[in-house]
Design a protein that fits this description.
The complex is a heterodimer of chains A (113) and B (115).
Chain A (H helix, E strand, L loop, with lengths): L3 E4 L2 E4 L5 E7 L5 E7 L5 E9 L2 E4 L6 E3 L9 E3 L8 E8 L8 E2 L3 E5 L1
Parallel strand pairs in A: 2-11
Antiparallel strand pairs in A: 1-3, 3-8, 4-5, 4-9, 5-6, 7-8, 9-10, 9-11
Chain B lengths: L2 E3 L4 E5 L4 E3 L2 E3 L5 E8 L6 E7 L6 E3 L2 E6 L4 E6 L8 E9 L7 E2 L3 E6 L1
Parallel strand pairs in B: 2-12
Antiparallel strand pairs in B: 1-4, 3-9, 5-6, 5-10, 7-8, 8-9, 10-11, 10-12
Classes of the chains: A mainly beta (113), B mainly beta (115).
Chain lengths: 113, 115
């Protein structure tokens, strides 16, 4: 089945450690996105990528980094510079045309203590 | 500027009641696209509907209906005869033709359907 996979579902890390969240899609979508969701809040864009080897900062990119070496993969690294990393992280993808919707992965809940 | 406002933070209804979720948007694009997503407790967002700015026809899909009015910049979502399974957070989103691939989400409305 086509879709987006994120792993793991739950992730626990100690403060000061970098952690990488995985996002893979087999929908042949050009664009991929990372969002952060805090309890009771909406989605905030961290980074997005429209094509391989290219990505743009979203509204809250500080303390995060990404890569897009393959069309199917868009991993997100939460660095130790991110002040409040505990959150729910959602990956999404879409066809590159503006009239197409995004498809979302199941999300990764990151807890940093 | 692109902005989506969902003024209703939380709504509770009793099962079988109708409920309308409001969405107001701002954009300078003349061509844009509006979306509704459902986020059940599992967390994954599920796409419900897409509407482009040239199509103001209302749409009905089973118990769901959408009312798009450009004159008031609104794209409201109505659930008829609500069911417990409708309990979720609902997000409205905007994508402008000129802003490329970036989506703008509202803060969501949490709907609780009480049995």
């Amino acid at each position: 089945d086509g879709g987006i996979t994120q792993s793991p579902k739950y992730l626990f890390r100690k403060e000061g450690q970098n952690v990488t969240l995985s996002c893979e899609q087999n929908l042949n979508h050009d664009a991929m996105y990372w969002y952060r969701q805090d309890p009771g809040q909406g989605l905030r864009l961290i980074y997005y990528s429209q094509i391989v080897n290219d990505f743009q900062k979203g509204d809250i990119a500080e303390g995060y980094s990404v890569s897009r070496e393959k069309k199917e993969s868009f991993p997100l690294t939460v660095t130790s510079a991110q002040k409040n990393p505990t959150a729910f992280y959602l990956c999404a993808s879409s066809v590159g045309q503006p009239d197409n919707e995004q498809y979302f992965g199941p999300g990764t809940r990151l807890t940093v203590t | 500027a692109q902005k989506v406002t969902q003024a209703q933070t939380e709504i509770s209804v009793v099962e079988k009641e109708d409920v309308t979720l409001d969405c107001v948007y701002e954009t300078r694009d003349t061509t844009y696209y509006l979306f509704w997503y459902k986020q059940p407790p599992s967390g994954e967002l599920v796409f419900l509907i897409r509407r482009n700015s040239f199509d103001e026809q209302n749409e009905i899909s089973g118990r769901y209906s959408w009312n798009f009015q450009k004159s008031t910049s609104s794209f409201n979502f109505t659930i008829t005869a609500s069911q417990v399974v409708d309990s979720a957070v609902y997000f409205c989103a905007l994508r402008g033709r000129r802003t490329g691939n970036q989506f703008y989400f509202g803060t969501g409305t949490s709907l609780t359907v009480i049995p």
